[in-house]
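debug: dumping io for the single-chain case to check the tokenizer round-trip. Nothing else runs in this session.
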Amino acid sequence: MLPKKTILKIFKETGAFLNGHFKLSSGLHSGRYLQCALVLQHPKYAKLLCAELAKKFKKENPTIIAGPALGGVVVSYEIARALNCRSIFAEREEGKLKFRRGFSVDKSDRVLVVEDVITTGLSTNELISLIREAGAKVIGVGSIVDRSNSKIDFGARFNSLIKVKVDTYSENKCPLCKKGIPWVKPGTRR
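debug: decoded output
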């Protein structure tokens, strides 16, 4: 098992643990942000972290690993490689997650849903609904980082490599806004 301190060291060494003022995909604000893309751009770290996460779901024998674009694409691929199964992703079309590019699931599939970072679980739950509407079974949810600060019910087992507490604020209660510090929006859901 990869120790939490090793994982955090990788995030810090790659510049993926950011400080500033961020408007998250959820609309909440935060003074810290984990930019997994800065870690996953390094194949050795993508392979290491995703293989570690794959171990947590090996017994469930998934047939497909699915992630929401953009954060779940590399994670899905690397976990699928480790578990020797298909990797697919859903992407937004007119604001809704959809399978495109010929990707699909069917009633015989056992799907593991994965993400780089889970904060509110909105995209993850949207993908789970898409999979279940197609009749496939969701056998679990995995993420490299869980920064949800609470327990999210996905209706399936949830596991992450690390849990990181990062304070978030509504815009009207954000201390960084009150200080006049401009925010940036690093996420992908618009």
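debug: round-trip ok. The radius of gyration is 16 Å.
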